C-alpha cells in the first residue's frame, strides 16, 4: 500500500485523526501541544494520533494528501479540518466543539 492509501485508510477508519509531531503525552512542537489541548478541551475521545516524526513518508504524504503545508493536521469523519491555528479559531467560536457532540 502506498503512503496516500495508508493515510486515506487512517482518516476513513478512525472518526478523529490528528497528525502531529510527537505523541499526545510528549508533543514535539508547540503547535502539536496546542492541538492536543484543544481536542481535550472539546472532550474529543477516541482520537487516533499519528506521529509524523516516526515516518518521513507520512510526514510529507499527509501534506500532499491535504494540500496543507504544515503539521499538525486534524481530520474528523474523514474530512480535513485544518491545522492548529484553524483549530484554535474554531474552538474559540464554538464550531469545533460541535464536531464532537453526539
Task: Write a structural description.
This protein is an alpha+beta fold and 102 residues long. The protein has one domain: Glutaredoxin, CATH 3.40.30.10. Helix content is 49%, strand content 18%. It is built from five helices and four strands. The chain has helices at residues 3-13, 30-42, 56-66, 84-93, 95-99; strands at 16-20, 47-51, 73-76, 79-82. A hairpin with a 2-residue loop joins strand 3 and strand 4. Helix 1 crosses helix 3 and helix 2 packs parallel to helix 4. It is globular and about 35 Å long. The model has no long low-confidence stretch (mean pLDDT 96).
Shape: globular
Number of domains: 1
Query: What is the highest CATH level, the class?
Result: Alpha Beta
Number of helices: 5
CATH superfamily: Glutaredoxin
What is the CATH T-level topology? Glutaredoxin
> Uncertain regions: pLDDT < 50 for 5+ in a row?
none
What portion of the residues fall into strands of 2 or more residues? Answer: 15-25%
- Return the average pLDDT rounded to an integer: 96
User: Which structural class best describes the helix and strand composition?
Assistant: alpha+beta
Radius of gyration: 12 Å
What does the secondary structure layout of this molecule look like, with pairings?
Elements: H1 3-13, E1 16-20, H2 30-42, E2 47-51, H3 56-66, E3 73-76, E4 79-82, H4 84-93, H5 95-99
Parallel strand pairs: 1-2
Antiparallel strand pairs: 1-3, 3-4
Compact summary:
Helix content is 49%, strand content 18%. By secondary structure, the chain is α+β, with helices and mostly antiparallel strands.
Question: Which features characterize this protein?
Answer:
102 residues; four-stranded mixed beta sheet; 49% helix; 4 strands; alpha+beta; Glutaredoxin; 5 helices
Amino acid at each position: 500500500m502506498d503512503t496516500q492509501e495508508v493515510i486515506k485508510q487512517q482518516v476513513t477508519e478512525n472518526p478523529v485523526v490528528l497528525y502531529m509531531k510527537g505523541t499526545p503525552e510528549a508533543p514535539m512542537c508547540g503547535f502539536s501541544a496546542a492541538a492536543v489541548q484543544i481536542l481535550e478541551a472539546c472532550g474529543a475521545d477516541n482520537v487516533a494520533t499519528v506521529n509524523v516524526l516516526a515516518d518521513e513518508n507520512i510526514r510529507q504524504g499527509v501534506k500532499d494528501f491535504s494540500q496543507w503545508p504544515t503539521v499538525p493536521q486534524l481530520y474528523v469523519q474523514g474530512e480535513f479540518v485544518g491545522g492548529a491555528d484553524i483549530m484554535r479559531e474554531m474552538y474559540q467560536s464554538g464550531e469545533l466543539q460541535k464536531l464532537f457532540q453526539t
